[in-house]
Amino acid sequence: MTVPDSRPPTLFSLAEGAMSAQLVRINAATSNLANANAVSGSEEDAYRPIRAVFETELDKVSGIATVTSTRLVRTDARPEERYDPTNALANEEGKVWDAPVDETAEMVEIMESARQYQNMVQALQTAKQLMMDTLRSN
């Protein structure tokens, strides 16, 4: 995909896109964690984890590639079937389906996204400091 804006990207616009993409990842993983213990009365209705899909955008003028989150998709992970006839959601056979959320993997996803987000914050702080130092030296 090509960036439609004719202006060359700046550090700030690049950081904004990167931070937005990481925020989408964090929100998706958080949603998955919130539904980790969800139970359903059928396999079709069971919660399935979501993931952000990213797309690279190329600025043809500068040659700089950026990334954006284009959509969220459900994974094809299968819900875990278990026998629990006392559950109010159990079907006539006493079966319920648990959401196939790996809580450890979701926490890793959150930590990795937060780390990348923080890296962008640090890059912006460094750029700001360099610009201030440049202005002061004149």
Note down, in words, how this protein is organized.
By secondary structure, the protein is α+β, with helices and mostly antiparallel strands. The chain has a domain at 11-38 and 46-75 and 103-137. Helix content is 43%, strand content 21%. It has 2 helices and 5 strands; from the N terminus they run H-E-E-E-E-E-H. It has helices at residues 11-34, 103-137; strands at 39-40, 50-58, 65-74, 80-83, 95-98. Strands 1-5-4 form a 3-stranded antiparallel sheet, with no helix packed on it. A two-stranded antiparallel sheet has the order 2-3. Strand 2 and strand 3 (65-74) form a beta hairpin. The longest helix is centred in the C-terminal third of the chain and has 35 residues, at 103-137. One of its GO terms (cellular component) is bacterial-type flagellum basal body, rod. Keywords: Bacterial flagellum, Cell projection, Cilium, Flagellum. Residues 100-135 form the Flagellar basal-body/hook protein C-terminal domain. This is Flagellar basal-body rod protein FlgC.
